[in-house]
Each structure stands twice: as C-alpha cells, then as structure tokens.
Specification:
Chains A, B: This is Crp/Fnr family transcriptional regulator. The structure is a homodimer. In chain A, about 50% of the residues lie in helices and about 25% in strands. Chain A is built from 9 helices and 8 strands. The longest helix of chain A has 27 residues. The relative contact order of chain A is 0.16. Chains A and B meet through helix 3 and helix 5 of A and helix 3 and helix 5 of B. The structure holds a DNA duplex.
Chain lengths: ~190, ~190
DNA sequence: CATTCCATTTGACATTTGTCAAAAAAAGCA
DNA sequence: TGCTTTTTTTGACAAATGTCAAATGGAATG
C-alpha cells in the first residue's frame, strides 16, 4: 500500500474510527491520481463520481457565469472537495475542478462507497462525519458571503487560508470573494 | 402514536427506507412541540440538540450582527431546520429560531439519534441522506447569494418559496436576501 | 372611532462596488 | 536576455446599494 493511502486512511479514521477490516474494505474504493498544473480533475458536464482529497497541491473549483470564470472554492493540502450537487444529484456538473499546481489527489469512489454504507456501520458513520463537516464549511462560507464586506472577507481569507493568497492568482481570489479583480486590487493596496 | 408522528416517520422513510423495527426505535428519539407565534424554539447561547421539522407553521432562523437582526433561513410546512454549527460543534448557538406563526414542530434528539447510528444501519443511512440534502440546500443558497443581484435573488425567492413572501415581514425577507429593507421596497415597487 | 405603534415606502445623498480603458508589472518563452 | 503575453494596478466614471430622515399606511388597542 502506498504511504499516502495509509495516511489517507488515518485521516479518515480521525473523522470516525475504522477497524483494520473496514480499512481493508475501503482500500477497494480508493484510487490515486497525479495531476499537472492546468489539468482538470472534473470537467464541465461530467458527473462527479468521487470525493477528492488533495494530498499535496492546490485545486480550484469554479464555473462559468455569463462567460465569466467564477471561483467557488479552493482546496489545498489535506483538504476534501467535490462538486456537491453533481455528486448527490448525479447530474452533469456545472462546476469544474482544475489543478493550480502539480498535485497528488486521492479519489473515493461514490459507487463503491455507497455499497459499503449499506452494510458497514463504520463506513456509514464515517460518511456522516464527512458530510457534517462539509455542511459546517458550507455554512461558514455562506455566513461569510452574506454579511461581511469585501474587505472583511479578504481579511478572513488571509487569516484562515493564507496559502491561497500566495498561491492563487488575484483574479481567482477576487471571484471567490464575490468581487471584481479591480476591487480586490484596491482593497489590497489599502492594507 | 400521533398521526403527525406517523407522517413524520413516513417522510423519513422517504429519504431512506426504514423497517418497522427501526421506526419503533426512532419513536424514542422523537418529541413534538406546539409553539406560538413569537416564541423561540432555540435561544441565543443555547446548544442546538435537535433537528427540527416544521409539521405546520413557519419558523425563522436569525442572528444578531451589530445589534441588527439578520434572517438566515425560513422553514415552512414539512421542512427541516437546525442550527448547523451549534448542532455539530455542540457550541452555544449564535442563531435563534423563532416561530413566525403558531406552529407544530417535531424534534429529533441528537443524543438519542447518535446512539442509534452506531448500531443501526438504516438510521445511519437516513442521517447520511438528511445531511446530504442539507448540504445541497446550503450549496444552492450559497450560489444564490454569491452571484445573483438583489433583484434576481428576490425573483428566485418568489419562485421557490412564494409563501415566504406572503407570510414574512419585509424586513426579514430583506436581510435574508442580504439587502436593506429600503432596497427591497424599491425592488418590489419596480416589479 | 381615534390613537398609538410598527411596518413600509419615499426622498436626498453617501458609499461601495462595478465597468471600461489604459498603463504598469510580472510571468512565460524564444 | 529581450520579446510577447498575461496579470495586476490605476483612473474616470456609472450603477447598485446603503444610510438617514421623514412621510405614509395599516394593524392593534383602548
């Protein structure tokens, strides 16, 4: 077993305890992918069939709104990501996932995981934890967008995910914050 | 068993199949509460220990930001709601839940539900579905807030939850949309 | 029915953010 | 290194939304 897969299973165990037997079962749901800067992990129109985990690197999840590219989320080292609506509703994804750096990603197959949760309590409890955690993140992001000014959101981002500020181009950060790049540039110059 | 509890169990079964035995077990996690207009279902600072289901009525979830009252969500007939972060993180809730009408609410105890999911696969799968569904809702709301104008958000609300427009005071709708009541009033007058 | 209390609307003006164009800076490539 | 392309910054102005104050309207109450 690759060391990064072992570490990944450890991470999952950290969410909810997993016995050696269950870890063995999960191995069968897991694959890894090396992806180069600029490549897509999930294309527009594709159904999202995995939950991704960025072992190392930086991914961006975005979509097009009126031909304009809008960043919805960044995921750096040791973070999970997936196209929520496509994954659950099994519909073509409007969201696109691209690598902003050469990255190493671990994929958890939805199909296989869904077979497991029907029979394995540990995996079921793991998924409950995973989705709960996603829900908290989504909630935090919602609160941030709804009632912070552009400047406050930028400051929050600097505090919470400083690596994004350094690694991602300004235009991506701007759309993530829900503002134009000009506005972000001006905010930046005043800090 | 009260008929509304039976219907509630049917609703849950609709999310993920539940055997008669499991329904019996869930009964022990369920309580009901009648709540009058203006009363609070969850107070500020209280830890949210239930997932609520509005059998009949209308609830509002809100918080105070700089002494200003901000509506985060409405839940009408047959909808679920809870204070996400307080529930999962078991922290004092910043969110307050109040009844905008006399309502009938069903409560699902977190404590008892968490015991069940450790041993019962059906309940575990039910919770997975429930949280997945919440995650989709949260995601949709996020998309709406992030990249629709105030006017678009108002139109979406009219389409998706028209009863809110009729039942809730304008000021609550305005903060839910992330705008001031004056702006909403002006948007309204132009439609 | 009159009065009081809120909720809503309107007006005038301020602030924030967006748009478009151009300049400057940085990054990529021959 | 020098050239080209892309990204970021800056300026001028427009549009959207916020703020504050006052006017209006409606509901509740004595």
């Amino acid at each position: 077993m690759k060391p990064i897969v072992r570490e990944y299973l450890d991470t999952l165990s950290g969410l909810s305890p997993l016995s050696p037997q269950t870890r063995e079962l999960l191995l069968n749901c897991i694959s890894t992918r090396t992806i180069s800067k600029g490549e897509l992990l999930l294309e527009h129109g594709e159904v999202c069939k995995h939950i991704y985990y960025v072992d190392k690197g930086l991914m961006r999840i975005f979509y097009y709104k009126d031909k304009r590219d809008i960043t919805e989320w960044f995921a750096g080292d040791k973070q999970f990501l997936f196209s929520v609506r496509s994954y659950f509703e099994e519909t073509p994804s409007k969201l696109i996932i691209e690598a902003l750096e050469d990255s190493e990603v671990i994929l958890l197959s939805k199909e296989k995981q869904e077979v497991l949760i029907k029979t394995n309590l540990e995996v079921a409890n793991l998924m409950i934890k995973a989705f709960s955690y996603s829900l908290i993140l989504s909630q935090k992001r919602m609160e941030s967008i709804q009632f912070e000014s552009a400047k406050e959101r930028y400051v929050s981002l600097m505090e919470q995910q400083p690596e994004i500020i350094h690694k991602a181009p300004l235009q991506y950060i701007a759309s993530f914050l829900g503002i134009t790049q000009e506005t972000l540039s001006r905010i930046r110059s005043k800090i």
